[in-house]
């Protein structure tokens, strides 16, 4: 048996670290937290100073036993080495608790490293410390605070709105951002405006009409139409300004969690969750032949610090000088300072652990997604030590020669302008030159020259609202407001989507009706929970606990009593009926013709007829993604909801047991039949071909509710709609075609 024991939280991480340590070390994993608050009750002893009532996490009994057994068999030191953050510190503390190590233990020591390399692991083993009680207390305070807010608030939502809803301390503030942006878009009233561009003979360069500050003129229609008439009369413009200046562009700081998520989303379309998954894989270890096996390629990916170690800076500078030449190396080592007041400067920015491993050198060992993210991290880190890019910027302004037009633009201080930049020295941009766009050169002109107009273009446009949030812009806004921390950005967005409070459509985050309802409920009754400043203040106080300047008990005592009183009062005063109605719709009741109302029920939204004599109910279905077969209209089929989902039912159903499936607009790539949503044997939804069993195409195995681009498991389970022959919606010709394809594939 090995003399020493290293305990980490991830099996993948354990495997990589084991490769660096000799036979005197055994490395095992906790597979995350091992104890936590119970799932079925509050789990916080409020009367006893807000202490956590821990319970073993389901399925972790064997893990705990194996840890105890390994500790007992260890004659040397037990190194507690989970991640270098509050969650990692808490896991280390949990292991110490189950193994009954004292707070100041010589046998159990905390080992901390920010990258998984042989050097970093060795240094951590040599420089251990006690488990940091303040970091543990901060993690516990966050967990307790989330439970004290989320548990009673979710129970209230279940009771007053709909079963299964949840409200969290941070997710609710993030939901408010998405909902309020949607409200802003809906309330936006477009206004018309006009823009002007010009072109001149001998060049394809486009000049844009700008104001005195250099911003594009958005003329009101009256102004624009008057200028258009004047410009149509005239054929020459005079150059009133021709300036040339040298500008420099310095490299941005190295990546931190938020900027990595933003850059990966903007460059490659990765969601925050995807980015963190790929980063975790790069951090924990990839099998690289040149390095003799598993190696962590990047430093720890949950950080808000832009610091880099002196060793890392030296390695990057050495690489630049050798690979690109001394002329590209910045004169002095460039160091960045984190602007955030709560950033943990002991952490480092996200950087490559072995900068000598160029992206091209490791590409064959990485998945395409891992490679893209590694290249992004590598470029940003290396760029920090390169010289700025030097550009020669040329600016040309023209105005009409014709007197009336000239008088008009002079009065408004407008001019036609174009700006072009010519690269004098690439500097750090050398790393990205393959992605640069070609810039057209400006015509050779001098001040006072007259140019002959070849085109004047006046465009009538309408103002548009700000875009909806995507992963990148939402993370940026949360960071700006102080909502959440590097370790939580991705999970916050994931929770909102998993709870069906928001949908991701064309990469944008759109609130669902239930998400809007929950947000408005919280804004009306629990304004603090969705208040940005309050949420940010809570994060600051958690940081203060981590820095030992505030106690968990004091923080919770200042918040919880008033909140508990609010919960109690709202339980009595809120009327469910007022919350569950979403108002009148344009849909007419098929029985009496009355405009139906949309309501929220225990299992989602539905239509109800307000006519007291009718009270007809119909399921609510977003029909934008569905194809409606001709037979539905001809036969007067109606939407029904059963245990397998929504389906088309004969108007005399259930007396006439005739149904049709809900076909998606998307068609099968194998046989051209429409795809259909189904459920597997375990109840998990998936998307498959409606021509099943003749065509067994399945789109994906990761389908989630509201996301037609994902699917679950294949199964022969049938929906009620499949009692009708599929031949009614899929031709025999299509079925034969798919069967033939399947036969061909089997032959191959």
Protein architecture, described:
Keywords: DNA-binding, Isomerase, Magnesium, Metal-binding, Topoisomerase, Zinc, Zinc-finger. Monomer. Its EC number is 5.6.2.1. Pfam families: Topoisom_bac, Toprim, Zn_ribbon_Top1. This is DNA topoisomerase 1. By secondary structure, the chain is of the alpha+beta class. The protein folds into six domains: about 5-130, Rossmann fold (3-Layer(aba) Sandwich), CATH 3.40.50.140; about 140-185 and about 465-575, Topoisomerase I, domain 2; about 190-250 and about 390-460, Distorted Sandwich (Topoisomerase I, domain 3), CATH 2.70.20; about 255-385, Topoisomerase I, domain 4 (Orthogonal Bundle); about 575-620, no CATH class; about 625-745, no CATH class. The protein is built from 21 helices and 29 strands. The strands form nine sheets. A six-stranded antiparallel barrel has the order 9-10-15-14-11-16. A four-stranded parallel β-sheet has the order 2-1-7-8, sandwiched between helices. It has a four-stranded antiparallel β-sheet with strand order 19-20-21-22. Strand 12 and strand 13 form a beta hairpin. Helix 5 runs antiparallel to helix 17 and helix 5 (about 135-160) packs parallel to helix 18 (about 550-575). The longest helix is centred in the N-terminal third of the chain and has 28 residues, at about 135-160. The protein is globular. The two termini are about 50 Å apart. The model is unreliable at about 340-345 and about 700-748 (pLDDT under 50).
